[in-house]
Design a protein that fits this description.
The structure holds 3 protein chains of 3 kinds. By secondary structure, chain A is α+β, with helices and mostly antiparallel strands. Chain A has 8 helices and 20 strands. In chain A, strand 7, helix 5 and strand 8 form a beta-alpha-beta unit. The longest helix of chain A has 17 residues, at 165-181. Chain A is elongated. Chain B has a single domain (55-277), classed as MetI-like fold, CATH 1.10.3720.10. In chain B, 77% of the residues lie in helices and 0% in strands. Chain B has 12 helices and no strands. The model of chain B has no long low-confidence stretch (mean pLDDT 83). Chain C has 11 helices and no strands. The longest helix of chain C has 33 residues, at 59-91. The relative contact order of chain C is 0.13. Classes of the chains: A alpha+beta, B mainly alpha, C mainly alpha. At the A-C interface, strand 6 and helix 2 of A face helix 7 and helix 8 of C.
């Protein structure tokens, strides 16, 4: 088993920054901790590393209870946002640091440093100092350093947020490749960027205000979110307040809509989640008349903002030859299968959907 | 940050240097205070305190110490503020070299200033020499070196850099846009200094000033090199009593009073500089 | 820029020069001039000579210079060790304990050095520890006085050190000692160098406590400078003072070269 959190609670003074956190990361799995800042995701990672002490609960790594162990006995690799490469050591010394610290002989260290640098494509920079490298190169060295100790788990704390957008997408592909080449290493990947999480993770744990809100594969969370918070944080979402009808449909304002209601009780308040790209322009199933309030051209698509029954709907439609103008009356529609019914009141209490 | 380590060994590690400090400084200091209430005649009493407090020399020394320190500090504050202001806001070529020079200045001992001032303002020094050369008079007018004013001049010279350093640091953090905004609104330099720069620099000024006040109270080298019988301060009196007169009980009493005065002011300095975030 | 007109700036600079040069530059220049002068009775020194330096680098003066250098080196090394140790161990403690330690180690700054000297005299003039009359009491006094500054600089440097480095090291399996030796101390090296320079300079110029404590066979240079001026030979005193300043500057320069080498930013 990779990493397991068991009812982990961390508090600073009176502020609880991680509340009864339960999560299991399988061996070889990439788990993204996704959430806004202050959601407790970094605290969860630091609890695995041993830099924060839980007030309650246990942390397991590889079947071993490490809750009381100091960081240096935990057998982890870690990459942080600032990389924290030792500025007074050359790249090869940086990468070999963990091995030397653990008493690995010089010759073996050299060999493994070479392997780790080769794995991250940094072999030719072994004799450079960190300050002589670009941000992306420093990032690779930091990953090589963490991997050189052959950790069972790799902890990545916002590793890409110091890079510019182009480098970031390149590094994402690199990380995905590393994951394929190291199938036994579990990765815990902290990020506030949904694209990173959706691209890289086998599963995503969505966090908000010190609590775990949702766990699932990217597809599950995107297609079948369980809470309003997940729906709005993983991808964009139209969230419509509805009442569950008697006949397998819902009522939204004046309109009866077809949507899977599952076992929701008739008459109950609920939220209907429809992704913007599932909303089409013109007549179709579940038609909703409305007024265009805004239109944004995004290259391949147009985003229409349509006001219907006092709610604003986003619709991402393929580029239009002849787009409507603000103020025009239009009809939008969506297929019943593209809608998900969520229990009401599962968003952030003080957050607008 | 809470870490998964027990605190007992950490306390033990901290104990070693504290024990060394206690042996080399705290214990002697306590012993000194103890000596001050243990006269040579045996037993414990405040008799020596009465003698010392009653003596004219002590009262003059206490008065001298306080007023010289206060005057020097005031001088350092004004001079340091003006000089730092020019270096920071009206920079000239070589301003950075001047700032470096100030740093080097701090690494020299204080008594060198007095030694140098003897050549400048002494009875046969530069200033008086110039005067007699120009006017033909037999003697120059500068004879203040062996008065408290000589000590104050030396202390202002030596301690002004201690005010300039925190000020320059504070000025470095002031957003230049603030000054540009103020001057674009039509404010002239004196007004900007008064309403923008001074309020911002007050904490640094207070911290630097109180540090200098403590150091002036404790200054010994400058007074010793002045060599004037008329200028006795508390540290000077400690030295005189202990080394020249071998009157240790009296020296301990003066020392205790000196420590009390300095520690009180130092406490104020710590409080002020903590509020200043220094 | 605060003053916009060219004339205004010139006036401000003139004022600056008028204050700065006589107060700060003149004393040092005068000392150097006096150290080469045979006489000084008038506006300018006269009778240029090297005699004072001749006297300043032999016999008693040379012994004093050696005593000062040895005292400063020993006191700085001890103070740096104790101060760094104290700062590191205080850093690992809780906030309140840390504050108490900072206060304790700053006390020697607040207490007049003369009083610190007297206290050592009182404490170590009798058995069991009889140090009075030996050079060790001078070295002890200097150590105590400069430890405060070493502690203060290292504490400030520790506060600026990014904890991410030691955490990265710990996550890679390095024990605290290894982290200290391989990561924290190397990263602190520039600040330690600066602290060493400060301690050395302070010890070289220490006069107050030394005047209370020095034994006849261990006269540091400042005591000799005072002796010379007190005897009425200020020119010899100036030469000794210039030697004192020059030596201090040389050591500071050497230390700052090491510091630049150790600085990786």
């Amino acid at each position: 088993m990779g990493i397991r959190f068991e009812d982990v609670t961390v508090a600073y003074g009176r502020t609880t920054v991680l509340d009864s956190f339960d999560l299991t990361v399988e061996p070889g799995e990439v788990m993204a901790l996704l959430g806004p800042s202050g959601s407790g995701k970094t605290t969860a990672l630091r609890a695995v590393a041993g830099f924060v002490t839980p007030a309650r609960g246990r942390v397991w790594i590889d079947g071993r209870d490490v809750t009381k162990l100091p960081p240096y006995q935990r057998g982890i690799g870690m990459v942080v946002q600032s990389y924290a490469l030792f500025p007074h050591m050359r790249v090869d010394k940086n990468v070999g640091f963990g091995l030397r610290a653990q008493g690995v002989p010089r010759a073996e260290t050299a060999e493994r440093v070479e392997q780790a640098l080769a794995l991250t494509g940094m072999g030719e920079f072994a004799r450079r100092y960190p300050r002589e490298l670009s941000g992306g190169q420093q990032q690779r060295v930091a990953i090589a350093r963490a991997l050189a100790v052959r950790p069972q788990v790799l902890l990545l704390d916002e590793p890409l947020s110091a890079l510019d957008a182009r480098l970031r997408s390149g590094m994402l592909a690199e990380l995905a490749r590393l994951h394929r080449e190291l199938p036994d290493v579990s990765m815990l990947y902290v990020t506030h960027d949904q694209i990173e999480a959706l691209t890289l993770a086998d599963r995503i744990a969505v966090m908000d205000r010190a609590r775990l809100r949702d766990v699932g594969t990217p597809q599950e969370l995107y297609r079948r979110p369980r809470t309003e918070f997940t729906a709005s944080f993983v991808g964009n979402a139209n969230l419509l307040p509805v009442t569950v009808g008697r006949d397998g449909g819902v009522r939204f304002a004046e309109h009866d809509l077809q949507a899977p209601t599952g076992d929701a009780a008739p008459g109950a308040e609920a939220t209907l989640c429809v992704r913007p790209h599932a909303v089409g322009l013109g007549d179709g199933p579940n038609p909703l008349p409305g007024t265009v309030t805004g239109i944004q051209w995004r290259g391949a698509t147009h985003r229409l903002l349509v006001e219907t029954a006092g709610h604003r709907l986003m619709a991402d439609v393929g580029e239009l030859r002849d787009p409507p103008a603000p103020g025009d009356t239009v009809t939008v529609h969506f297929a019943p299968d593209d809608a998900v019914l969520l229990p009401a009141g599962t968003g952030g209490d003080d957050r607008d959907g | 940050m809470a870490e998964a380590r027990p605190w007992a060994p950490r306390l033990l590690w901290a104990g070693v240097p504290v024990a060394l400090l206690a042996a080399g400084f705290l214990y002697p200091l306590v012993l000194l205070v103890w000596q001050s209430v243990s006269p040579d005649t045996g037993g414990h009493s405040f008799a020596v305190y009465q003698d010392v407090f009653g003596s004219e020399v002590f009262r003059r020394a206490l008065g001298n110490t306080v007023w010289i320190a206060a005057a020097s500090t005031a001088g350092c504050l004004v001079l340091g503020f003006v000089l730092a202001l020019v270096i920071a806001f009206v920079p000239f070529p070589g301003a950075r070299a001047v700032a470096r020079f100030v740093d080097v200045f701090l690494s020299f001992p204080s008594f060198l200033i007095t030694l140098a001032l003897v050549f400048v303002y002494g009875s046969a020094g530069m200033a008086n020499g110039l005067w007699t050369d120009v006017t033909g008079a037999a003697e120059g007018p500068f004879a203040f070196l062996t008065t408290p004013w000589g000590v104050i001049l030396a202390e202002v010279t030596y301690f002004t850099p201690f005010v300039m350093r925190p000020l320059l640091a504070a000025f470095g953090q002031l957003d230049p846009a603030q000054i540009e905004a103020a001057s674009s609104l039509g404010a002239r330099a004196p007004r900007i200094v008064r309403q923008v720069i001074l309020p911002d620099a007050l904490p640094a000024l207070a911290a630097g000033g109180s540090l200098v006040l403590v150091m002036c109270l404790n200054e010994f080298g400058i007074v010793l090199f002045t060599g004037a019988k008329g200028v006795t301060t508390l540290p000077m009196l400690v030295y005189t009593k202990a080394i020249l007169e071998s009157d240790y009980p009296a020296a301990c009493v003066v020392a205790t009073v000196n420590v009390a005065v300095s520690l009180t002011l130092y406490g104020i300095y710590r409080a002020v500089s903590r509020r200043a975030g220094a | 820029m605060l003053v916009h007109s060219r004339g205004g700036r010139r006036a401000v600079w003139a004022l600056f020069a008028l204050l700065f040069l006589p107060l700060f530059a003149l004393p040092l220049l005068v000392l150097v001039a006096a150290s080469f002068a045979g006489h000084w009775s008038g506006a300018l020194p006269s009778g240029p000579t090297l005699d004072h330096y001749d006297a300043a680098v032999r016999g008693e003066s040379l012994r004093a210079l050696t005593a000062s250098l040895a005292t400063a080196a020993a006191a700085s090394a001890l103070a740096l060790t104790a101060g760094t140790w104290a700062a590191l161990s205080a850093h690992a403690l809780g906030r309140r304990a840390r504050r108490v330690m900072d206060l304790l180690f700053m006390l020697p700054v607040a207490v007049p050095s003369v009083v610190a000297g007297l206290a050592l005299l009182v404490a170590f003039s009798k058995p069991p520890v009889l140090l009075n009359g030996t050079r060790w009491i001078v070295i002890l006094a200097h150590t105590v006085l400069v430890t405060a500054f070493a502690h203060q600089s290292v504490t400030a440097a520790l506060g600026r050190l990014d904890p991410a480095y030691e955490q990265a090291a710990a996550s890679l399996g390095a024990r605290p000692w290894y982290v200290l030796w391989r990561v924290r101390l190397p990263l602190l090296l520039p600040s330690l160098g600066a602290a060493a320079g400060l301690c050395f300079a302070l010890s070289m110029g220490e006069l107050s406590a030394t005047m209370m404590l020095y034994p006849p066979d261990w006269l540091p240079l400042p005591v000799l400078v005072f002796g010379a001026t007190d005897r009425g030979s200020p020119f010899t005193g100036s030469a000794l003072a210039v030697v004192l300043m020059g030596t201090t500057l040389l050591v500071l320069l050497a230390l700052s070269r090491i510091r630049t080498k150790a600085s990786y930013r």
